[in-house]
Amino acid sequence: MKNKSSLFVSARDMFLKYGVKSVSMDDIAGILGISKKTIYQAVSNKKELIQAVIETHVEEEHAAIKIITADAQNAVEEMVVIAQHVLKSMKAMNPSLTYDLKKFYPTTWNYVENHHFSHIEKVIQKNLERGKKEELYRSEIKEDILCKMYIGMAQLIVNGHIFSYKKYELSTLFENFIDYHLNGIMNENGKKLFNQLIKLD
What are phi and psi of 21, to 5 degrees? Predict the structure, then answer.
């Protein structure tokens, strides 16, 4: 298959919308208007396709967050824009995606946990350090502790045993989590800036 990127984009869109378990190689071939044989010229099996799609998606997310961090005028704006970016992604994602990966494709889920979450932990730690230097976050916060707590709570959100996907939407859980996180770390200067940013949206 000459154009792997179109395969990965179509597969990613279907996985996000329906989860990985319910999407077959026939479904993906149908969307692309090609045969399964053509897909198997690019990947050996569905497991390999899922791994490649998730790796590509994670790298794209890291690149997007890098741009947000570079463009943000301050730590509060950085967190707000990152949160908006993640919320947009969550609203387009079927909550069964994480469940499917954890249950049926543990190697791929381990990649998400080890590569993606560790990257986000570093992003959050730098944001906490930046917020303290800019005097927008409380001076007494412990960055090394709070960045790990952030990741722990983020992982809790996608735990279907704690928050039932039938009862809670991922986007609602994330909104409440971010509100909890920011209000726990911002000082009065940070809160004033946060309120100004929210009014601009």
Answer: -70, -40
Radius of gyration of the chain (CA): 19
> What gap in Å lies between CA 71 and CA 64, rounded to an integer?
11
Q: Which residue has the tokens 């770390």?
A: 185
Place of tokens 């395969």: 7
pLDDT digits (tens, 9 = 90+) for 164-198: 888 888 889 999 999 999 999 999 999 999 999 98
**Per-residue model confidence (pLDDT) at position 117:** 92
Instruction: Write the pLDDT tens digit of every residue in 151-167.
Output: 999 988 887 788 888 88
CA 39 to chain centre: 27
- Cβ atoms of 135 and 185 within 8 Å: the answer is no
Give me the sign of the Cα torsion angle 114, 77, 168, 64. negative
Architecture of domain 51-200: Orthogonal Bundle (1.10)
